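Before drawing any conclusions, I needed to go through one protein's amino acid sequence and its backbone structure tokens, quoted below without any editing.
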Amino acid sequence: MKIDLQKLLDSLTLDQKLAQLAAGGPYKEFVVDGKFNNDLCRSAYPNGFFGIMVPVGLTPEQIGEWVCELYKCHAELSPIPPLVMCESLHGILGKGATMFPQSIGMGGTFDPDLMRRVGEAIGKEARAMGIRLSLAPDLDLGRDPRWGRLEETYGESSYLVRKIGEAYVEGLVSENRDYVATIKHFAAHGHPVAGINLAPTYATPQELQDKYLPPFKAAIDAGAMSVMPAYSALNGIPCHGNKYLMDEILRQNWGFDGVVISDFGGIEMMNGFQRSTASMKESGRLAFSVGVDVEAPYPRTYKDLKALVEEGNISMEAIDKSVLRILKLKADIGLFDMAMPDIDNIRRTVRSDEHKALAREAARKSMTLLKNNGMLPLKTESGAKIAVIGPNAYVAQIGDYAIPQPELKTPLEAITERVAKFGGTVVSAKGCNLYGTDTSGFAEAEEVARSADAVVCIIGGQSSRGAGIGWGTEDETILTCGEGCDVHELIPGGPQLDLVRKMIATGKPVTVVMVDGRPETLFDAAENCDALIAAWYPGEEGSNALAELLFGDANFSGKLPVTFPRHVGQIPIYHDRLPSECGFYKSPGTPDKPGRDYVFGPTTPAFEFGYGIGYSEINYKSLSAERVVDGIKVSVALENIGEYAADESVLVFVRDEVASIPQPIKKLVTFEKVSLGAAESTEIEILIPNDELMFTGVDMVKCLEPGWFTVMVGGLETRVYAE
């Protein structure tokens, strides 16, 4: 439908225009007996609203019916249709939608094509239900594992987050560009002071340009039409009132003409929480003045926009500019002539067999094997007895921004099914909880472990809550990770670490599986166990995928998207730290023999970013690098010397040896997925583009300073001169 947007804008009253600048909420109240609450809509929003969050407690079919009623009612109030919005970090936040691995696990796949296909699936399910805007993806860099929302990120690397994030956007919006991806949280949100959610973040102007902003720019270029500011303050200025971020960078420098939507309650936080404004009214004026078009989840501060216009503190020109952006967005995605949801199509699309198979593929590829002394794959001999121990053996953990689904298969159930296929048996014990101090279950767990041939101990955290938001809900589920659930140490909650130690002390071979949204520190338990797996929150098919991997039905291919510290005291620690952050004296001590830089320990991590092994060893050899016009051409040979087919993520790092602004000891600049059959060899060429060799200088201009670059691939290094 061709629409004259200027004519439509001119036909609107001031109240109708202002209605487009706020979402409708609280959205839970818009549901009565599973139906849309027409009476509330007419009384609370007589001129309509920009859009509304889809209620999370409804089935997909109910959502479809709810959307139809919403549109019918809203058409009586406004000539502008509303956007139905949702959270979709790893699946639609709704009852019955397909749940893929949480974002941190998807980062660990190092597979943009897989992420693109997951984005497509999420977009198809959303469209079928009548949803046309996702508050996703999260493009924060996960730089502090104490922060509970690290699980929502794709990892610590700017390059990795950029490539996985833009792939998600491409899949979600599709070639038709008929869906809105709202990228968040703009900007530098993932490195809060002390790891505390909503705390301020600090970044130099160069870091902002080189690390934190590129994922957002790439996502916009990939088709994202909406941006969400961060709750936090950047360098002391709240992002929702930050003119440099929201206007100078986003609008002026990048030319972004899409819609900026506030994080939920983010504008009012400038008043009561951050104390940067004297009133809610002033918060609204400030946010609107820097370019925040829409307040969500409902107009707590933008309710005063009319008064601000009448007082002359906000111009009609500014109002019209924002409203026109919104009208253009809705027209561009075809909202004015959107077909209403069809129940049969919903049933065919949502959680289809194809999507469930994709969820299992993603789960397999997200898990990372960190250690294996030969225990894995588990033996499949008739009569074998496997002990499955630990609190997360009994729960299908899927992460935050997801609806808990009790019907999902637990790890214990999936392993039991797999063992039954070869005539083995499974014995189990919980051992302890995810929190608290109760160790009364240890004795049973030890007895069960001693009776078995091998032990699989499944520990970790929990972040999924009934409403999925992670905070501010009525649900009293105990959380240890996710939004608002930050930690002061990285050991597993409760007595889980001691449970692992007890299992190791039985003398049986022990595989430890960490199901969590952040790195865990296991100290001596990591050193003494026989195998160690980071499973993250692997989605609805995670238990089946774990069983396949444990028994060698599939091979591990994931690599760590974040660094695992040895101890929380090492934070901040990541792969791209500066040379001066690695210590000067290079004589680390031990508990028995004090030394320097850390008196009683090393400065190196337990497991580095990008680390991950499989059932077949991949040998790297013959690394070479050559300067070419477009960048640096890297050649490397790979050989699979094992008996299992393998998918290997070839990660390429560089180090700028001398720079006017010191550069990281290693920085991920490109990667490529390579499939190798058993005993197969191959040689690949990868280009490091010139842009990845550049950095922002003192004068804030991107530059490539002539000099030597060290190229690192698979433990090999070579140098090349570039200018």
